[in-house]
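Sequence in, structure out. Go.
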Amino acid sequence: MSPSVDPEDPEGAIAEAAAACSNWGRWGTDDVLGTLNFLDAAKRCEGAALVKRGASFSLSQRFDMNGPQRGWRRRTNPVHTMLDTGTDAALGSQGFPHGLGGADDMITMPLQCSTQWDGLGHIFDHGRAWNGRAAEKTVTSEGDLVTGIEHMAPYVAGRGVLLDVGRVLGGERGELPDGFAVTEDHLVRTAREHGVRVGRGDLVVVRTGQLARARREGWGEYAGGPAPGLSFTTAGWLHRSEIAAIATDTWGFEVRPNEFDGAFQPLHQVAIPHIGLLIGEMWDPEALAADCADDGVYEFWLTAAPLPVTGAVGSPVNPIAVK
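Output:
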């Protein structure tokens, strides 16, 4: 059953959905993987068997100063700094012997400023983290002491599925308008039109087309502003389908403005701490989507391991889809 949306009662709707969709205790009290438990060895073998042509696609935006971030909650675009350069080598200032020279660099950035995963320690509901843990004992100034994203690093690889809702419902350009709430019916219809099934252990990529529009027209309010995205009512589908993870081409995964008066990211509040769902944001499925539309194949091998940053509640990622 899908949760209802009473615009004036976000607290009640969130509580109802949290109770109906809870996976607390499903994999034991010590679980740190959430829905990634659905992605087992057999599912990875199923995904690997989908590689037919060897065509590969990066689903990542670039990591540079030209990204979409505007400083909300101190989120900035990546700052790339050179530590050693060809100039240093040519001037002989590096101190290496027999003509050796080199270049080194570093990057400074929030872990969630571009294509990324939201870890299980990213969102809390009334002071509770994934699996019912106390938020203040789970994530401290030392990081996520329990469900740090490093635990997920070996497991995010398997059968990927693209649901190109933008192409199915977005008119000639294949782009959903900002504020478009993608419902369970929309997801089911898209899967049906693509001739693909979605279920246990799958890694689902939802294309709305917003990223394509932002690239054409400029970032504008892409980072935090109005956007198409999943409706709060999809919480039931996210739970019942038993998918391992889901990612979108938008900043916030769910529809913005949110569907409740005065609410902020209510679907996150259910999906992460209660369902234990791994959520990806700001992915770039454009090249993959064009290929899927061309050959009619919307399933593929997908590997999208987070960086094993100890105690992190999110991670940059360069997802690779192979068909």
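Check: The mean pLDDT is 97. The chain has ten helices and 15 strands.
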